Amino acid sequence: MTEKFIYFIEKMGHRVKELGSLNELSGELRISNLEDAIDKQDGNRENMQCKDKLCKVIFEWSWGNDNDKEVMEGLQTHTNFQTFPSWMLRPVGNSNTGLLLLDNLIELEFINCINCESLPPLGQLHNLQFLKLENLTNVKHVGNGFYYSESTEGMNEVIRVFPALKEFTLEGMESLEEWIAMKATNATMFPRLERLDISGCPWLKSVPLTGQCSSFEKPSIFECENLSKIRDGLKK
Which ranges constitute the DSSP H helices of 67-142? Predict the structure, then answer.
C-alpha cells in the first residue's frame, strides 16, 4: 500500500524548508497552500531532488498567485517519479528539457494551464501511458514540438513517439485549431494507443492518427463541431 504524507504551509506556521531534511519520505507527498511560500529559495529548501523514494508528488495552490513561477523553479524533483503533478500554470525555466529527465513517468495531466501557449515534447516520455490535457485555453497549435525536441530532428534512427501511450484525453481546448502530423518520415507514433477522448474543442478540424495504432478503438468525440477528419480510416 502506498504511504501518503500531506503537508500544509501556513503563513504563521510551517514553511517549505521544514521538509528539507525528510529525505526518507516514500510513496505519495501532497504539499498544499503553496501560495504562502515566498520564492525560489523557499522551493529550494524542500530539497526535492534527494527524495528519491517518492513515486508521486502533488503541489497545490488554494488560489491564484504571482509567486508560482518562482516557487516551482525551486521545487525541481528527482527523476524517478511515475506520476507527474498536474500543477503547471505555465512553462517554468527550461521545462521543455526538464520533462525529458522524468523518463519513468506513467501518468501526466496538464489541467487549467491557462497561460500555456505551447506544449513541451511529451512524445519522448517513453513510459507514459496516460496523458490528459484539460483547459489549456491558449494552445492553438499542436505540432512537431509536441512529438520531439529540435535536437532529435535529423537523426537517422527511427524516432519513437509516445511508444507506450494507451489513453489520451483532450478536453476544453477552446482555442485549439490545428493538430498536425509529424514531419519526420522515420517515425512511429502512438503504436499502443487504445483510447482517444476529445471534448470541448470547437475549432479543431482534424486528428492526425495513423494506421500504426493497431489496438485503437473508436474515439469518443463530443462538442467538436468542426472536427471532420481522423486520418487513415478512423471514423468520427
Answer: 68-74, 95-98
Q: Cell for 17?
A: 524548508
The region, left, alpha or beta by phi > 0 then psi within -120 to 50, assigned to residue 131 is beta
Nearest to 16 by CA among 26, 25, 7: 7
Closest among 82, 86, 61 to 136, alpha carbons compared = 86
Q: Can you say whether residue 97 is alpha, beta or left, with left for phi > 0 and alpha for psi between -120 and 50 degrees? A: alpha
The CA distance from 99 to 79, in Å, is 9
Q: What is the pLDDT of residues 1-23, one digit of tens each?
A: 445 454 444 443 445 556 655 66
- Buried b / exposed e over 223-233, threshold 16 CB at 10 Å, is ebeebeebeee
What pTM does this model have?
A: 0.66
CA atoms within 13 A on the CB side of 215: 12
Compute CA 217 distance to the chain's CA centroid, rounded to the nearest angstrom: 23
Task: Convert the pLDDT of each residue in 51-110 to its tens digit.
Answer: 666 666 666 655 554 444 444 444 555 445 444 444 333 333 444 444 445 667 788 888
Question: Rg of the chain over CA atoms, in angstroms?
Answer: 19
| Cα atoms in the Cβ-side hemisphere of radius 13 Å centred on 224 | 24
Is residue 24's pLDDT more than 50?
Answer: yes
Q: If you search the block for the grid coordinates 527550461, which residue do you land on?
A: 94
